[in-house]
Structures are given as structure tokens and as C-alpha cells.
Amino acid sequence: MQVLQASRERRRSDRRRAASHPATADLLRAVEQGEIEILFQPQFACSDNRLVGTEALAHWSHPLHGRNGGEGLFALAQATGVAEQISQHVTRAALGTAGKWQVPLVLALNGTAAYVEAGDFARVLASAVEDAWFPFELLTLEITEQVLVSDLSRTADRLRQLAALGVSIALDDFGAGFCNFDYLKRLPLDYLKLDRTMIDGIADSPRDLAVVRGIVAMAGALGLQVVAEGVEHEAQRQAVAQEGCAMWQGYLGAEPMPAEQFVRLIGA
Ligand code: G
Ligand code: MN
Fold first, then answer.
1. Ligand 1 centre from 185 Cα, in Å?
2. Strand, coil or helix: what is 249?
3. Which ligand places an atom closest to the C-alpha of 58?
4. Is the Cβ–Cβ distance between 125 and 91 less than 8 Å?
5. 218 pLDDT exceeds 70?
6. What's the total number of domains in the chain?
7. 56-78 pLDDT, tens per residue?
8. Which ligand is nearest the CA of 72, by number?
9. Which ligand 1 atom is at minimum distance from the Cα of 195?
């Protein structure tokens, strides 16, 4: 009950902030003018390096301030109280683009806190997926700890509604935050996505490798697949493949790229 009240109060104060913050209009105008671009970063199968999916990442190309990546963009959206609108826009834009691809690829979307906490989140996302004619089975929703801290059981319920439609759920940035193992017990997860800080030292440090090995074993026991993010070197790619990760993503394969470039890459 307290948590519900806290969440309601947060949304109310978000709206107050939205009305008064000087950047609010700027951000909403950016959405209308198409300045918020969706970049796509390929994900590869560890077994044969086939391109099997892509993570959609929002970028704000501001005419004066230049490019502003996902985290900066969403921090500003949160501060100005328009995070839910921005998230909805990014979700619809990414699905609209991916819905036109001729090859079946997994699309991973980041579920921000403001988006997931909205009462009708599961229904809103499901209708965006239907409108884009995108197959539910090819959608993965990436959830971070920030999304989960407010009310785990409520979020778990919503994620279960999406899972029932065929959507996969990934626990994002795993290993970077508090690593609350309750999440692993209570959420309907399909993937663990290792934070890049878990990958950095994997080829040089036996301790780093041991940590990843332990996590992959635990994931296996839970029936989860592991995705390695931030793979920048061939030795890291080999290590994550050797340890049994299912997919990898990172600058070694490709940086996040505009949709047109991604379409050329997949030949769709
Ligand atoms: O946590 P999340 O999956 O949302 O992270 C995506 C972010 O990571 C993007 O901003 C993207 O540009 C960045 N990124 C992607 N691949 C790499 C990489 O190989 N190295 C580093 N340092 N950052 C990466
Ligand atoms: Mn992510």
C-alpha cells in the first residue's frame, strides 16, 4: 500500500516537475521533430557469431548540445517528468522500424522505470507490439534494477502478463548494481545480461573469469540464457563463448547504428 502511494506521489511530482522544468518543452519538441533517434546494436550468437538480434538504444541528437546517449537522455527525461512519454515514443519507434524487417530478428527494448511503473504498462506495450505487427515471440524486454526497486511483486505481475504473450524478459546490467538474488527467484526471466564491467577483465583476470563462470552456472541451473554485453576484444568473445554464454554484444561486433545502416547489415 505504502509502495503504491509512493509510486502515485512520484508520478504526481513528475507532473509538477514536467510543468516547471525548463528542458521539458525542449525534450517534447525533440520527440516531435524526430531528434530522438533509435540506434540498433547487433547481438550475435556465441556458437557461430550469427547476427540473431539487436538492442534498440535511444539517442538525442540535439542541434546545439550534440548527441546524448540513452542514460543521459532518460536521466533528463526523468528529471523533467516526461520519462513515460519518451519511453513510449522510443518503444513505438523501435517496434515500427523492426516490424518492417524481412528477417526474423530478436528486438531488445529497454524498459525504463517510468514506463514499467505506469499502471497500464503491459497493455500499452502489447498494443504497441500489435500495431507494429511485430511478433511477441521475437521481443525481449530488458529490465534493470532501477525498474525493480519500487515494487517487485507488482512489476513481476506485469512482466508475467507480457511473458504469457510470448515476450522474453532479460535482467539487464547484471553484476553492476546490488545483484539482489530475489529478482532471480521471483521474476519470469529468460536472460541474464552481464554488465560490461563483468566482461572487461574476463580475458586477463582469473578472478573475473571465475565470477562469470559462477554466474553462468547459476543461470544454467535456473534455465536462463546469458548475454554478454560490452565485448570489445576477440579474447573476451572467445572467453564468453567458452564459458557458455548464448549471445554477445559489443564494439567488437558493431557499435549502435542508425536503422538504415542496420538494414544494410542484415540485408533486409
Ligand atoms: O546497459 P545497456 O544494454 O542499455 O547498455 C547499452 C550502452 O552500452 C549503449 O550506450 C552502448 O553505446 C554501450 N555499449 C555498447 N557496446 C559497448 C562496448 O562494447 N563497450 C562499451 N564501453 N560500451 C558499449
Ligand atoms: Mn540494455
1. 27
2. strand
3. 1
4. yes
5. yes
6. 1
7. 999 987 766 666 667 778 888 88
8. 1
9. 1
